[in-house]
Design goal:
Blueprint: E1 8-13, E2 21-27, H1 29-40, H2 49-55, H3 69-83, H4 94-97
Antiparallel strand pairs: 1-2
């Protein structure tokens, strides 16, 4: 299987207070530009074709629907881990601090 470039990209913004919002979306060359800009700014990327398909149906500025909160939470948690951050008020379990 060849390395295929994504044909669709969706960017989310999460401020920790409200639901994540769609801040960019596009297909083809625009998707490639969104991905390149994210990489340039050190923004973590996550590939999930099914989630992108659902998110791409929303309009720019829309909050993600509640039905997608868990999927978005997993991606946001992944981004936090990659950046070495923890959410405000988060206290790791003893198992997590013993690693």
């Amino acid at each position: 299987m060849k390395n295929q470039k994504p044909t669709t990209a969706v960017a989310l913004h999460y401020d920790g207070k409200e639901a994540p919002r769609i801040t960019a979306q596009g297909t083809g060359e625009l998707a490639e530009q969104i991905i390149a800009l994210a990489k340039e700014h050190g923004i973590p990327l996550q590939e999930d074709a099914a989630l992108v398909s659902l998110l791409s149906k929303l309009d720019l500025g829309d909050e993600i629907p509640q039905t997608l909160y868990m999927a978005a939470a997993e991606i946001i948690a992944f981004a936090y881990i990659l950046k070495g951050k923890t959410p405000e008020g988060f206290e790791p379990s003893p198992e997590q601090t013993e690693r």
